Amino acid sequence: MTGDEYGLRHGEYTAVVAARGAAVRTLQFRGRDLIVPFPAGGPNPDFRGVIVAPWPNRIPDGMYTFGGADYELPVNEPDRQCALHGFTPELEWRLESRTDSAVELSCTIGPTPGYPFALSITASYRLASGGLHTAVTAANVGQRSAPYGVCPHPYLLAGPAPLDQWSLEVPARTFLEVTPDRLLPVATRSVEGHGYDFRAARVIGSTKIDHAFTDMVFDGDGQAHVVVRDPGGTGVGMAWDRSCAWLQLYTGDAEPPLPGRLGLAVEPMTCPPDAFNTGTDLVRLEPGDSHRAAWRTFAA
């Protein structure tokens, strides 16, 4: 269930943010959906639009080691035996403030046996002429160092044509190879000469993507951009700052009879899959410290 929700409006943009998971349930420009929406009052399929923390993506078997101690998280992806997408998607976030064009929600996670740390997390959404601006701030309100990572989980909609016909541009020079069965990290590879090279915009076609990318090219303003375009001329994009060195892309290839390839999941991440074990770009929050990540979704 989505719980309470908050409508936002600014200029030609509108959005609805649900308390459950701090999820962006709808985002529209001139009445056109920019993300795959989900119904009010019902379940949220595929983690659409949620904030994912304190870890993005997967931790195999729910097992990790941090600070010399071993921990075990609940496995919520039984087919792959992984702990997936943290705790925040299932929480009811509290309203902190709102205006016609902005809303701020918060939640607290931990301590639990598998995550004996305490974080206070705030998600701020603001509609402006440049689209939907999002910032997530996590503060360590406990007494011990805490591992942390975060990402959003929207499915972008370029337009009415099938996803196979959309063009995609991704400013990443490296992708993370994963195992075919459990999608667990193997090694980073150059996109050069590979089917996952979208540094120059090209049609997605039948390519199936469920991979993390890194080595981003940031512009002079410190922003990286992903843009997907429909052959009819519409498009949507996301931009993010250097707090997110990684990007997960997923073409939504659900198994029949579930509908697949409805939208492209674009997830700027602070760390890659299984960072709780590898330590790669993992945020280590000391007591009293905080971390901020920000991104923007816009009509292109």
Question: What features would you describe in this structure?
Answer:
- With 300 residues, the protein is mostly beta strands.
- It is 1% helix and 47% strand.
- It contains one helix and 27 strands.
- The longest helix has 4 residues, at 275-278.
- The protein is globular and about 55 Å long.
Provide a brief overview of the structure.
By secondary structure, this protein is mainly β. The chain has one helix at residues 275-278, and strands at residues 5-10, 13-18, 23-29, 32-33, 50-52, 58-60, 63-66, 69-72, 82-84, 94-98, 102-109, 119-128, 131-140, 146-148, 151-153, 155-156, 167-169, 172-178, 185-190, 202-203, 210-216, 224-229, 235-240, 246-250, 264-269, 283-285, 290-299. The mean pLDDT is 97.
List the helices and strands and how they pair.
Layout: E1 5-10, E2 13-18, E3 23-29, E4 32-33, E5 50-52, E6 58-60, E7 63-66, E8 69-72, E9 82-84, E10 94-98, E11 102-109, E12 119-128, E13 131-140, E14 146-148, E15 151-153, E16 155-156, E17 167-169, E18 172-178, E19 185-190, E20 202-203, E21 210-216, E22 224-229, E23 235-240, E24 246-250, E25 264-269, H1 275-278, E26 283-285, E27 290-299
Antiparallel strand pairs: 1-2, 2-3, 3-4, 5-15, 6-9, 7-8, 10-11, 11-12, 12-13, 13-27, 14-26, 16-25, 17-20, 17-22, 18-19, 18-21, 21-24, 22-23, 23-27, 24-25
